[in-house]
Design a protein that fits this description.
With 200 residues, this protein is an alpha+beta fold. It is built from ten helices and four strands. The protein has a four-stranded mixed beta sheet, with helices on both faces. The longest helix is centred in the last third of the chain and has 17 residues.
Amino acid sequence: MANSIDFYFDFSSPYGYFASEKIDDLAAKHGRAVTWRPILLGAVFKLTGGQPLPTIPLKGSYAAHDLARGARLFQVPFKLPTKFPIGTTAPARAFYWVGDRDPALAKNLAHALYRAYFAEDRDISNPEVTANVAAKLGVDKAQLSQALDDPAVKERLKSEVDAAIERGVFGSPYVVVDGEPFWGSDRLDQVDRWLASGGW
């Protein structure tokens, strides 16, 4: 079986959100599965010196325009959240905890969390909000709420972020196909062509 595609993303990344709505269908077209790997851009930015888009002069105002345009292109519901960006420790921990029990449900949770934030303007950095989103999918809210503070779950996320950084991941979305990295939702067409042709 062909290698799984690695899909790295941060739940506060609108471009990650756009890619999340397309990556599985794109991969399936080429007989590939996708391994979803949430990361924390805050940890990455400590190494790269990166900053959240809204804080960067000129680039921030362009990004607001580009995001609205991108949402139309990707045909996904989108409104820039009232609080943007946010820390995404709670949703990322929730993803990995659910994923260790039910990988398919974890992907559904990721979609639901992204939409809660970027379509419904719900602050998923709040563990209560994350747990409520998960509960609507049938996840036991009490168990998940407890898991978010579990040292093992905290360590799991830390190890995933460390491994991503070790691999060279520096942004969201970041897609790796057979060792070939692609950064940005605007690279999905290249990912498609790479999978079709075997590279160039």
